[in-house]
Amino acid sequence: MANIDDVAKLARVSTATVSAVVNGRDGKVMPRTRQRVLNAIEKLGYRPNLYARTLARGRSRLLGVIISDVMNPFFAEVAQVVQSEALACGYNVLIAATQFSVHRLNDAVEHMIGMRVDGMVVITTEMDEHTLAVVRRRKIPVVFEDVGTTDETTSNLRVDYAGGIYRAVLCLAELGHTHILFAENYPSITEKRRLFSIQARSDAFAAAVKKFSNLKSFTIARPGPPFQAGIEAAVTARSHFDFTGVVANCDPIAIGMLRGFRRSGKRVPQDISLIGFDNSAWCELTEPPLTSVDVSRSSIGTAAVEALVGMIENKTPGTDIRIETNLILRESVGRAPKESRVSSNAAVELRP
């Protein structure tokens, strides 16, 4: 591979002149000399060493983006918005996925640090104290989702899970549903501790139900791939609980439940009303279209990059950024059936 010395030798100039041409600082280079350098670059197939350039400048113009799962539309769409906003600000993006593993999260953070990123956006379901400590010790500007406190180099996106879940429960209550199921999906049955955003949504449901004296609630949790988990949850829930409304902790499990209810002879929304969470593009494609709590990927990505660039370039202190949620009504919800079966007065949880 040709290097800068090879180009300088062929063009009969100094390496400083080659560097000036490559980096666009060739205002004082004679046009004929500049052309000789360009001809030598083309003939040798020379490509600048971007990593060396990063070390020389002290800034990489790279942002690291760490998400939990590239196959999940929510995380993928957030990463896409971050990339678009970063490019508009003159930054390139490195993306890593953790597959909901804290170990892989730590590896991804160390990799980003090794690549000399100027800052990171970490939108993951999982988090631990080691990751926080590493980032803060290095004083790398970072934007997390709902993690810890802010400081000079740490901003937090605060998603209004409580408001979104409450709107979902309120919607069902106003339509006459008094027996509501919360369907929860998480990555693995071997994962003993529940991951942050999963726990946040579960807590939000429990708090929302308490605001209504006439509501009875149930919870069913299923691990693994969410579509299959949703099918299994729908079938199992029908044999254990009497309910007419469902709030799911993510759209994929809700879509799986839609199929599960259909297989078991239940109609949505005539027999059961169903609400998802995240408002993914899939919600418009189901039959019936799925009502869902919307978390704006555009707001998350834009706010994250804005905060990150501010911390990098202007030394702006980290801040809390509130991300609103809204309920998007579609045809998967309707009035409670006139003859609703009566259930136990106690809230029940069914877990594997």
**N/C terminus separation:** 58 Å
Low-confidence sequence ranges: 341-352
Q: Please give the largest β-sheet.
A: 7 strands, mixed
Note the total helix count: 12
Q: Label the CATH architecture of the largest domain.
A: 3-Layer(aba) Sandwich
Query: What is the top-level CATH class of the largest domain?
Result: Alpha Beta
Helix content: 40-55%
Quote the average pLDDT: 88
**Rg computed from alpha carbons, rounded to a whole number of angstroms:** 26 Å
Here the CATH topology of the largest domain equals: Rossmann fold
Count structural domains.
3
Q: Give the strand order, joined by hyphens, for the main sheet.
A: 12-10-9-8-6-7-13
The counted number of beta strands is 13
Provide the CATH superfamily of the largest domain: Response regulator
Listing every helix as H and every strand as E from the N terminus to the C terminus, the arrangement reads: HHHHEHEHEHEEHEHEHEHEEHEEE
- Counting helices, strands and paired strands, the structural category is alpha/beta
